[in-house]
Amino acid sequence: MAAAVKLDTRKLLADAPEEYAFRTNNGHILRNLKDLANELKTMSDETYAFHVNDEKNDFTNWVRDIIKDDTLAEDLRGIRDRARASRAVSRRVTSLSRK
């Protein structure tokens, strides 16, 4: 059982295939959850608002559909604030890294 958890954790922290890397509107490329955590720390609020607004949440979609982390996707779904999203992703990366 522990080996299965370790494998799942590695998958969640692994790089997405190049064709599914997340490209922000400021030109940065995110390949994994650690990249997302780091980007959210320094991203402008304007860039965040481009990707997360009343009509869409690009980060939630990418985390759910490409990274396959339903837990984090659900956490991000209702977050409209960059700082809160940054904390949520950083906490998740830390949690997964410890498993």
Helix segment tally: 6
Structural class of the secondary elements? mainly alpha
Q: Helices and strands, in N-to-C order?
A: HEEHHHHH
Low-confidence stretches: 1-5
Kindly report the spatial arrangement of strands forming the biggest sheet. 1-2
Number of strands: 2
Distance N to C terminus: 12 Å
Sheet having the most strands: 2 strands, antiparallel
Summed over residues and divided by their number, the pLDDT gives a mean of 93
Shape, principal axes of CA atoms = globular
Please tell me how large the radius of gyration is: 13 Å
Number of domains: 1
Give helix % range.
55-70%
Bin the strand percentage. Answer: under 5%
Word description of this protein:
With 99 residues, the protein is mainly alpha-helical. The chain has one domain. 65% of the residues lie in helices and 4% in strands. The protein has six helices and two strands. The protein has helices at residues 2-13, 33-42, 45-51, 58-67, 70-77, 82-98, and strands at residues 22-23, 29-30. The chain has a two-stranded antiparallel sheet. A hairpin with a 5-residue loop joins strand 1 (22-23) and strand 2 (29-30). Helix 2 (33-42) packs antiparallel against helix 6 and helix 4 packs antiparallel against helix 5 (70-77). The longest helix is centred in the C-terminal third of the chain and has 17 residues, at 82-98. It is globular, with a radius of gyration of 13 Å.
For the structure shown, list the relevant keywords.
single chain, 99 residues, two-stranded antiparallel sheet, disordered N terminus, 4% strand, globular, 65% helix, mainly alpha
